[in-house]
Amino acid sequence: MKRPFSSMSSSEKGSSKPKQGMFADIKNDLIAMVGEFIGTILFLLFALGAVQTVATNLSSNESGSASAGTQGGGDLAVKLFSYYYISAAFGLSLFATASVFYRFTGSIFNPNVSLALCLIGAIKPVRFVLVSIAQMVGAIVASAILEGLTPGSLAVNVGLGLGTSKTQGLFIEMFTTAALVLSVLMLAAEKHLLTPFAPLGFGFTLFVVMLFSTAFTGGAVNTARAFGPACIQGFQNYHWIYWVGPTLGALLATAFYMFLKAVHYWKITPGQDSTDESDSPDVATGDNAV
């Protein structure tokens, strides 16, 4: 097979590659930054829009500019339904927007996920910084747009509820974020037959962890999600838990992922994502038993 023709000598190629590669990386990082900015706006605009819908209908946005829209009002049934409504909205919004941007930027929309991807080497430090900035600014823009589009005061802040302490809230945010980050690492960073369907896994994971955490912490699971509305509504004195908790969660998920890679997890139960009929268990002989 013939190699593509090139008029450049091997020495010229070698000298030009680093420069071309450097500019290509910067260009790609900046494009990814723009994509994450737009994607984060869309993801949070629709997700936070659901929170605002609940807050408006339950008139919970009358308690002040720093009110937490994720703490529903009304009787127990109404509260439970509002938690489910908000959790479903976030999960579906992430699935929808991630499906659109997945082949473009990886559909991160979360600086804690970006941190984990940087730590495992999936993205470089420069891209991590750029997309994290884009995600934080995108969250502010989404909150500002939502305030302009809906009546009444913005009421989409996260907040501790049901008597949850700061320590409890911190660890709830840590474990829920760890679950979301792990879904990204195992479904998107790892390449296998389920990788093309990773956005569906992201959405379901976010939905599930928010079913647990929304009533207690507001279900941030994302520092940008907590930071954007707070810039419009105001910061609670415990806002720091939405930075520390998700960051610890990203580190926990990364550590577990690295452990799985170290023990060659794919060899523990081989052929799990195989579609080859020959990999099916041989009932007669039991040859395929683990």
Describe the structure.
Residues 1-19 have a biased composition (Low complexity). The chain crosses the membrane at residues 30-51, 83-105, 126-149, 169-188, 200-220, 240-260. This is Aquaporin. Residues 1-20 are annotated as: Disordered. GO terms for molecular function: water channel activity. By secondary structure, the chain is an all-alpha fold. It has one domain (20-268): Glycerol uptake facilitator protein (Up-down Bundle). The protein is built from eight helices and no strands. The chain has helices at 10-57, 76-105, 111-119, 125-149, 166-189, 198-217, 223-233, 241-262. The radius of gyration is 22 Å and the shape is globular.
Q: How are the secondary structure elements laid out?
A:
Elements: H1 10-57, H2 76-105, H3 111-119, H4 125-149, H5 166-189, H6 198-217, H7 223-233, H8 241-262
The CATH H-level superfamily is: Glycerol uptake facilitator protein
| Biggest sheet descriptor | none
Would you give the CATH topology? Glycerol uptake facilitator protein
At the first level of CATH, the class is Mainly Alpha
Summed up, the domain count is 1
Average pLDDT, all residues: 86
- The total of helices stands at 8
Distance between the termini: 43 Å
Helix content: 55-70%
DSSP strand content: under 5%
Please tell me how large the radius of gyration is.
22 Å
How does the overall form come out from the CA principal axes? globular
Summarize the helix and strand pattern as letters: HHHHHHHH
Strand count = 0
Structural class: mainly alpha
Biased composition (Low complexity): 1-19
Pfam families: MIP (PF00230)
Subcellular location: Membrane
InterPro entries: Aquaporin-like, Aquaporin_transptr, MIP
